[in-house]
Structures are given as C-alpha cells and as structure tokens.
C-alpha cells in the first residue's frame, strides 16, 4: 500500500530530462556553418555563428545567463537564425524562465517547423511547466519527424509514464533502448514505468542495467533497493540502499527508502532512525513525516502519530496517503467521525484509493450506519473486486479486533440484490446481442451497482467497452473478472487483445503467457504470443 516517494521520482525525472538537454547540447546544438548558412555568408552572419557557438559552450558549462546573452547577440545579427532561437529557448527553460523559453521555441518552429531539436526543447519546457499533454504532443511530433531518434522515444515514454499510460510508455522506452542500448536514462524511465505497474522484478532488472552503465549513480542504487523492498527481498534492498548512502551520504530520499526497507523487515527502531536522519537533512520532507507518523501509530504512540501526520498534511495537503494514514489513527482513537472525514478526503483526492473507501465502509459499519457502509462497500468492489476472505484479511490491519463481522454483514446485504442484478444483466445481454452497446453497458452498470460479484457481467461489459473502442474501461473490467476468478481464460485472452490495441505488447504477451499456463495446449495463445514477441523484437 506504500507508494514510491515523490522526491525520488522527481530525481529520476530530472535525470531523464537532463539527459535530453545534454544530448542536445553536446550533439545537436553546434551545427556546421555550412548547414546554418548554405552558400556565401556576409560578415554579420559569421559573427552570429561565433556568438552562437559561444552560447553552446556556455550552456554546456552551465553558465545559462551568459549563454542567453550570447544567443541573443547571434539573433540580433541574424534575426532568422532558427537554431539560436531554439538553443536560447533551451537555456531559458533550464534557467526556469519558461514563458520566454516558449516564445523562443515557437519562433524557432515558425522559421523551421520540422526542426526536431526545437520540438524536443519545447517538450522539455512544457514538462517543466506541468503541461504534460503539450509535452506529449511535441515529443510525438518529434518521433514522427525522426523515427530513429532514441531521445524522442525516451522522452515520450517518460511523459507517458507520468500520465500513467504505462503500456505505450514501456513500448516507447523499449524502442529507445533498442536504438541506444547504452542510454541509462531510458532504462531508468522504463524502470519507473514497470514499478508503477507493480512489476518490480522487471524494474529491478532495468535498475541493474542502469547501475552497470553508471555504477556511481546513487539514485539507481536507492531505487533498486526500494523495488527490492517492495517484493520482500529486504536484505538485498538494504545492501543497495547502504551502497547508495555510501555514494551520497546526505541523500534524504535514500534514507527514507532505507527506513522503509527496515520497516518492511520489521526493524522499527532502525526505520525510525533513518526517518529522523532524513528529516534532519530535509525538514520539509512531507512523506517522511507521513511514514514516521504511521510507524508511531503502529507502536501505539497515537499522539505522536497525529502530530507527524498533521504536519505532513500541512506540507502536502493533496497527499491522499497522509489523509488515509491519519484516518487510521482517528479510527484507532475511536474518533469515528474524524476517521470518516479523512478517509473521504483521501478518496476525493485519489478516486482509485480503494483502501480509503474500504476503511470508510468499516467505519460506517462501526457506527452502525449500514446504508452508507454498503454504499462504500459496493464502490470498493467496483474498484478492486476481491473474494470476501481477502476483505477480511484487510480488516486485520485496522487496530481493532472483530471487524471481519462487518464483511459478513455487508456480504449478506449484497446477496439480497443478486436476483435483481441478474435480471438487469439479462436485459443488458439481450441489448448486447441486438447491437445496442450503449444500452447494454447501461444495464450492466445497473447490475454491478446492485451486486458487484458476478464475473460474467464484468466480462460482458468489457466486451462491450472493447467493441466501442473504450480500451481502458475494457481492460479494467477484464481485470475485475480475473480478480474474482483468476482462472477465467477468456478474460486473459481478450485483455491481451485490448493491450495489443493500446500498443502494450508486453502486457499482451504476459496475458497470453497466463493463458498458456492455464491451458498448456492452447495453440492460438502460443501463436499470438510468438507473433507479439516478434513484433516486440522488431520495434514495430
């Protein structure tokens, strides 16, 4: 249930983006004079090139203000010097003067609309302004103009990762790696994508490649350590994190991650020591206050827990995890209304935070408010369908005994609606066969709102979504069906095709592999898997 701390993700983001800047600066900025000014050139243009080249050197030295001055002198001498606008825009973006950077890059693209470097630099600028959609559009155009550009694929993949479009992100980053096998930033970005998808084994493999390419990269060691902690390989995690801190002893992110690894190992004292050390280095590290507060709650220091969680929320009011943690403390304090408020805020901030919704359902049940408890319980099932036994296991971490009785009571209430749910399903299925997909989906929605435990309804709604081109919704429903019945082969097969349609070859291959595990003689699954592997290898 823990999420990777944002500062480390930001560090990797910066590494990937700076790699672009370095590549542009080292390889693309200095263009041969003959390319800049074909034919004869007057003296003013020769002077413009000299100023431009000086600007490039200054940019590579990190002297951004001086570089901007040099590029400006080049532009004054030659007002249609597109590359000078492009690289002044990059220098301004690196200096965080984003409005002027965009003005320069727009001017560069007016002069030369097909210049990949200007598109890449503008994508870089949009990223730093927080406009991921425009950054994605520029990197996508760069890919179309330069389909062999590893940089363009890598940066588009990174932006897609930030947008949680993970299948296409991994495909882009894999293409970047095939084009430039020595690019550590591409492996780092793909590792982030795998980790966000919960595939920590693949993330670990990519971090290992980063370490092989850049063995002194403390962030790669720290992030591999965190990924290893997430799969319970705590000793290896601690080895990595100790090495990261040997390389960079004052990295609060690595200390935070090592604290998490100690926590996973069950060593609360060392976890607390690392959290405390991280806060000495960065007193405004909100995630550390959040996790230190949670650790205090587990040690039954509820007063200390609330103090830390309150401060975490003050620093990061949009952090759903902090609200969730504080809700747990209020629940343990038997402050049920406050717990409901915090769980509700966590769910509002992150509508996919099913744990918050589940805990609010339990809290309503503790208050004997069965209607609201049932309403939340249905929401939980539509987000994360699981058998009742799993939900009972979730009750164990709440700090109170006997909460599993609420799951039994809620399941009994749900069961009363099963017949009505089946009737709506049959109505939807009839509409589905008649080709009325919108009507069918509406009936399936009604059926699942009443009784969200029927695998065939999720499966048929997924088929309808897929036929309507709503691939993300289809994938969600196939996944829900599989959560309730992990051996339901049709859901794997059809989810594989949906992944393929989205460009997520790795996801499609994984699903066909599951089909083959369940049905070793399934020739179609083997054929489809092998075809997709060939496509993946070709980079198409």
Describe this structure in words.
This protein is an all-alpha fold and 540 residues long. The chain has a domain of 111 residues: Alpha Horseshoe (Serine Threonine Protein Phosphatase 5, Tetratricopeptide repeat). It is 78% helix and 0% strand. Helix 3 runs antiparallel to helix 4, helix 7 runs antiparallel to helix 8 and helix 29 packs antiparallel against helix 30. The radius of gyration is 27 Å and the shape is globular. The N terminus is likely disordered.
CATH superfamily of the domain at 428-538: Tetratricopeptide repeat domain
Give the helix proportion (percent range): over 70%
Calculate Rg over CA atoms.
27 Å
Q: Give the overall shape, derived from the CA principal axes.
A: globular
The CATH class assignment of the domain at 428-538 is: Mainly Alpha
- Unreliable stretches, pLDDT < 50, 5 or more residues? 1-35
What distance separates the N and C termini? Answer: 35 Å
Largest sheet: none
Q: Which structural category fits the helices and strands?
A: mainly alpha
Short structural description:
With 540 residues, the protein is an all-alpha fold.
Write the layout of secondary structure elements.
Elements: H1 6-28, H2 33-36, H3 43-60, H4 64-77, H5 82-94, H6 98-111, H7 116-129, H8 132-145, H9 150-162, H10 166-179, H11 184-196, H12 200-213, H13 218-230, H14 234-247, H15 252-265, H16 268-281, H17 286-298, H18 302-315, H19 320-332, H20 336-349, H21 354-366, H22 370-383, H23 388-394, H24 404-415, H25 418-433, H26 437-450, H27 455-467, H28 471-484, H29 489-501, H30 505-518, H31 523-538
Helix pairs in contact: 1-7, 1-9, 1-11, 3-4, 3-5, 4-5, 5-6, 5-7, 6-7, 7-8, 8-9, 9-10, 9-11, 10-11, 11-12, 12-13, 13-14, 13-15, 14-15, 15-16, 16-17, 17-18, 17-19, 18-19, 19-20, 19-21, 20-21, 21-22, 23-24, 25-26, 26-27, 27-28, 28-29, 29-30, 30-31
């Amino acid at each position: 249930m823990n999420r990777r701390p944002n500062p480390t993700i930001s560090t990797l983001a910066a590494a990937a983006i700076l790699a672009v800047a370095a590549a542009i600066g080292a390889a693309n900025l200095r263009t041969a004079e003959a390319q800049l000014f074909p034919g004869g050139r007057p003296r003013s243009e020769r002077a413009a090139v000299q100023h431009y080249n000086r600007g490039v050197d200054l940019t590579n030295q990190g002297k951004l203000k001086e570089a901007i001055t040099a590029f400006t002198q080049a532009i004054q001498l030659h007002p249609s010097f597109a590359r000078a606008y492009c690289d002044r825009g990059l220098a301004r973006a690196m200096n965080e003067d984003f409005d002027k950077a965009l003005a320069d890059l727009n001017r560069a693209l007016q002069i030369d609309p097909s210049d990949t470097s200007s598109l890449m630099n503008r994508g870089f600028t949009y990223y730093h302004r927080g406009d991921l959609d425009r950054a994605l559009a520029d990197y996508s155009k760069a890919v179309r103009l330069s389909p062999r550009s590893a940089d363009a694929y890598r940066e588009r993949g990174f932006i897609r990762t930030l947008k949680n479009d993970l299948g296409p992100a991994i495909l882009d980053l894999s293409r970047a790696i095939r084009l430039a096998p020595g690019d550590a930033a591409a492996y780092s970005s793909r590792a982030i994508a795998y980790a966000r998808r919960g595939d920590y084994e693949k993330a670990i493999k990519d971090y290992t490649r980063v370490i092989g390419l850049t063995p002194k990269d403390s962030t790669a060691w720290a992030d591999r350590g965190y990924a290893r902690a997430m799969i319970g390989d705590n000793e290896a995690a601690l080895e990595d994190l100790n090495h990261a801190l040997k390389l960079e002893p004052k990295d609060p992110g690595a200390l935070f991650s090592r604290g998490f690894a100690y926590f996973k190992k069950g060593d609360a004292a060392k976890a607390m020591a690392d959290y405390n050390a991280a806060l000495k280095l960065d007193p405004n590290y909100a995630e550390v206050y959040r996790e230190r507060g949670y650790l205090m709650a587990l040690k039954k220091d509820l007063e200390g827990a609330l103090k830390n969680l309150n401060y975490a929320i003050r620093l990061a009011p949009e952090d759903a995890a902090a609200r969730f943690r504080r809700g747990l403390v209020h629940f343990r304090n038997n402050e049920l209304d406050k717990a409901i408020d915090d769980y509700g805020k966590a769910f509002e901030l992150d509508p996919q935070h099913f744990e918050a919704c589940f805990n609010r359902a339990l809290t309503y049940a503790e208050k004997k408010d069965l209607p609201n408890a049932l309403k939340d319980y249905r929401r939980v099932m539509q987000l994360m369908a699981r058998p009742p036994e799993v939900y009972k296991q979730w009750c164990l971490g709440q700090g109170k005994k006997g909460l599993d009785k609420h799951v039994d009571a809620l399941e009994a209430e749900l069961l009363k609606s099963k017949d009505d749910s089946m009737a709506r399903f049959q109505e939807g299925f009839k509409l589905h066969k008649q080709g009325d997909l919108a009507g069918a989906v509406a009936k399936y929605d009604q059926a699942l709102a009443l009784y969200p435990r029927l695998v065939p309804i999720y499966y048929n709604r997924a088929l309808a979504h897929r036929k309507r081109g709503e691939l993300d919704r289809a994938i969600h429903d196939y996944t829900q069906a599989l959560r309730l019945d992990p051996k339901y082969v049709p859901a794997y097969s059809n989810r594989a095709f949906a992944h393929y349609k989205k460009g997520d070859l790795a996801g499609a291959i994984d699903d066909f592999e599951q089909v083959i595990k369940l049905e070793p003689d399934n020739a179609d699954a083997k054929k489809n898997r092998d075809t997709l592997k060939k496509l993946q290898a070709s980079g198409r």
